[in-house]
Inverse folding.
């Protein structure tokens, strides 16, 4: 299962970092490890007109070009945020439950279904 492998690799990496800090003389104790955030990135083969995308997906999507170059799309049931860039790049962040990693991994069918819902009316695709 993808999720378990990633958690095990993250735990191993955190243990290695703790060991390095110990060797530098810091008092480090490794305990209560847990995954609190997940990041997934993918690129779509097309550009997105963010103003039209936001208009078609309000109030879930917001776009403030003066503050950030991406439109923000919130998926409340997964507690995730998708940053949609005009280049077609997507960044999914904010997962609190590690069981949702498989659902939002860029190669999963969930991501494709979500993208189909996001880009349902495609006039904003450039």
């Amino acid at each position: 299962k993808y999720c378990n492998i990633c958690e095990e690799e993250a735990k191993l990496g955190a243990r290695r970092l703790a060991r390095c800090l110990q060797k530098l003389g810091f008092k480090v104790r490794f305990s209560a490890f847990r995954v609190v955030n997940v990041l997934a990135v993918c690129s779509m083969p097309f550009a997105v007109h963010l103003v039209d995308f936001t208009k078609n997906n309000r109030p879930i999507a917001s776009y403030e070009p003066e503050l950030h170059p991406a439109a923000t799309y919130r998926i409340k049931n997964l507690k995730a945020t998708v940053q949609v860039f005009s280049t077609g790049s997507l960044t999914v962040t904010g997962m609190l439950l590690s069981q949702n990693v498989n659902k939002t991994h860029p190669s999963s069918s969930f991501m494709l279904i979500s993208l189909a819902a996001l880009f349902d009316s495609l006039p904003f695709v450039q």
User: Anything to note?
Assistant: Strands lie at 39-43, 61-62, 70-75, 80-85, 89-93. The chain has two domains: 1-34, 35-124. The first strand starts at residue 39 and ends at 43.
